Inverse folding.
């Protein structure tokens, strides 16, 4: 029987190194640098590049990818154990070559890209010489892809794109965008769109503005306009009408990887709660000695461990099935559970730190905002809860006896009928 929570010694030694490296070398970067994806920032490059070299030497670069792309092909469970440490710092994923959205974009380029697309876009992306952006959401809605209007029309050897994209993260740093556009409006609903690689210096592509949420240091979510932007015909990624299939390839992985990093964010907040509870004194005793504080610590630990087990189990299922579609229900459950865990733990940590907790000197206000980020990005929680419930009901097998007019009293009557004689017999004999 295989049911094991242990990590093998060799990998644990790697994780221990990562944990030390994160705390000593990477977490401090959060306080002195701007955005981890700003590859044009010389200060960022001077501090981040040598750390990336150490990660490569250690054999831990881009572990989400297979060896043919310079990664380790670790699989999702090992990746979860790594990512939950990297999530402690904004710079962790970048230093280890597995930052979103580049990680998902690299996966689809590796999977669907032509040799020329891989040479031009994938290799520099894997080397973190450039960064990328995934532009799917439109101003009129993100949760329902059927409302997307951005068009791509074939004109000779080119595709001509027109329309708008909204909240395209890291658009301002990106060398290229991966854009979903309608190519075949009359096709069946999930065959209408195709995916395109659009270099950001393409004439006709304009940044209307960059948006951000209040705790972000730099607004990076692009509101973009395509006004007759032309790309060569060979910039289509995947087949014509296959955008939904390509998108799902990256979104399944993207959601579970976000969840792994969220464990790291929540654990950092919990560590800081412990530090505060043990060091701050009020009314003659430590915060740690107050029962309401103890309850908050205990609730936080329980919620985080429950969530972590759900994430690890889902990672294990992905490794087992090697197909995100077969684990859709579990990924939706992880996605739906994630915001509340982060929100509640970060809020308790904020309160426990008092006034400094709410200030920009501490990470908690940002982590609370992050909980809304993970609630919305890659599809709102409500949509994932609906997916989960539909899949549960699809997989549930009603017993003939309960169907079609199930009601609890009838269950009781059947149970009484079944045991009536046996119980009567026992009653007679005592
Ligand atoms: C930080 C961040 C980063 C993002 N990065 C990117 C990116 O890089 N690329 C990209 O393409 N997009 C990105 N997005 C956009 C994201 O995918 C959308 O915000 C999301 O899909 C929701 O779309 P919307 O914002 O248009 O909200 P809407 O679709 O208008 O939904 C608004 C709200 O309505 C409710 N709702 C919607 N549908 C349902 C339903 N079926 N049942 C019940 N309630 C529902 C939910 O409360 C939902 O939050 C990002 C978003 C955020 C917040």
């Amino acid at each position: 029987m295989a049911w094991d929570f242990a990590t093998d010694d060799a990998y644990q030694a790697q994780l221990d190194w990562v944990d030390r490296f994160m705390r000593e070398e990477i977490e401090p970067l959060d306080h002195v640098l701007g955005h981890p994806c700003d590859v044009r920032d010389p200060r960022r490059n001077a501090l981040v590049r040598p750390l990336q070299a150490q990660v490569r030497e250690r054999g831990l670069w881009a572990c989400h990818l297979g060896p043919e792309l310079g990664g380790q092909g670790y699989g999702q469970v090992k990746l979860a154990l790594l990512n939950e440490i990297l999530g402690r710092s904004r710079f962790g994923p970048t230093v280890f070559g597995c930052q979103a959205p580049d990680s998902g974009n690299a996966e689809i380029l590796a999977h669907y890209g032509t040799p020329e697309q891989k040479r031009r876009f994938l290799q520099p992306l894997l080397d973190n010489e450039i960064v990328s952006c995934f532009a799917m959401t439109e101003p009129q809605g993100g949760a329902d892809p059927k409302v997307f209007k951005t068009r791509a029309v074939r004109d000779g050897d080119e595709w001509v794109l027109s329309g708008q994209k909204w909240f395209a993260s890291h658009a301002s740093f990106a060398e290229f965008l991966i854009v979903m556009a309608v190519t075949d409006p009359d096709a069946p609903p999930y065959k209408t769109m195709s995916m395109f690689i659009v270099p950001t210096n393409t004439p006709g592509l304009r940044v209307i503005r960059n948006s951000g949420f209040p705790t972000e240091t730099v607004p990076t979510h692009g509101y973009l306009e395509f006004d007759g932007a032309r790309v060569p015909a060979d910039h289509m990624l995947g087949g014509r009408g296959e955008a939904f299939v390509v998108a799902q390839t990256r979104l399944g992985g993207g959601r579970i990887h976000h969840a792994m990093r969220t464990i790291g964010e929540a654990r950092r907040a919990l560590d800081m709660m412990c530090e505060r509870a043990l060091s701050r004194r009020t009314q003659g005793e430590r915060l740690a000695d107050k029962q309401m504080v103890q309850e908050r610590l205990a609730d936080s630990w329980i919620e985080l461990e429950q969530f972590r087990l759900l994430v690890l189990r889902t990672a294990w299922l992905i490794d087992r099935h090697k197909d995100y579609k077969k684990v859709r229900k579990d990924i939706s459950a992880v996605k739906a559970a994630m915001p509340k865990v982060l929100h509640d733990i970060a809020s308790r940590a904020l309160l426990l730190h008092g006034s400094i907790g709410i200030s920009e000197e501490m990470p908690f206000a940002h982590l609370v905002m992050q909980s809304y980020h993970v609630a919305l990005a890659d599809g709102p929680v409500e949509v994932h809860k609906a997916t989960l419930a539909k899949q549960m009901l699809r997989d549930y097998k009603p017993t003939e006896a309960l169907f079609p007019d199930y009601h609890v009293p009838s269950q009781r009557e059947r149970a009484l009928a079944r045991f009536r004689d046996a119980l009567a017999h026992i009653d007679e004999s005592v």
